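ingest -> validate -> predict -> emit
validate: passed (alphabet ok, no gaps, 289 aa)
predict: started
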Amino acid sequence: MKNVIFYFFSFLVAMYGCNPKDTEKPDDEILAKDTTKYTCTKMLPVSDTTFQISEHDVSVKLCTPDEKKGTFLLLHGWNFPADDWCTKTKLCSHAIEDGYCVVMPHMGKSNFHTNIYPETRPDYSVFPGLLWLTETVIPELQKMCLLVDGERNFIVGLSTGGRGVAMVCQQMPWLFTGAAALSGDFDQSAIPNDRVHQGFWGPYNQFPERWTTIENPVFRISEMQTPIYLGHGLSDKVTPYSQSQLFYDSLKKHNPSLKTELHLPEAGHDYEYWASEVDNIMRFFRGIE
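emit:
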């Protein structure tokens, strides 16, 4: 049934469609396989839906205004429901009220990893990683007039999804107007006993290069060009707040002109905290020119 919905959705795109622009990006800016630009000529007359892209679910909530400003890409936490941002916070309703569509990929227990290694746990290897988003999902959504290059697009994530925000922005620095990451981890070498990371990359003492280079957002800090709001609870017992502090300090050192904000309230690793940050995130996004 989901495949039927997907093909129906694609048919409507063909009918009401998107027109590719003629301009192209310089070669040194091409980090994803498909950088074709599309311009929406008409909003698709389709209600909220969930469909599959390469065997994994993607949920879409279409915005209601006549003219779409852009798209919010929302990343959930490790093994959380994909729509938690909508059911447990007001982020989706605020985004839609402001004229944005909302996209929520179902990442499951993904670590937003770049590779599957021989040491990756078999039960982890079935979940989509970073390149599924950047090389498959986003190009497909652009054909559906979502996450269109040149519109005001934003990416938001919490917990493991916060790490995902940094990884996606570093992979596609031209696509997003702004980003927000709550309670994320960004330098895994500082938390070498983390079992999730061990499950994907193997033990730190055996494979330090995986933990400190390609899979590490702080190592890739120079690739971060997207304005970002960082939030982390000081009482977080799951991911230490020092992770967000470290990422913020690294951004300030390597890209001091980048619009960046860090908020460290007395809070934990839960939706009571994450819901409390929605107004701050929307304020930060509205202030980006």
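The chain has ten helices and ten strands.
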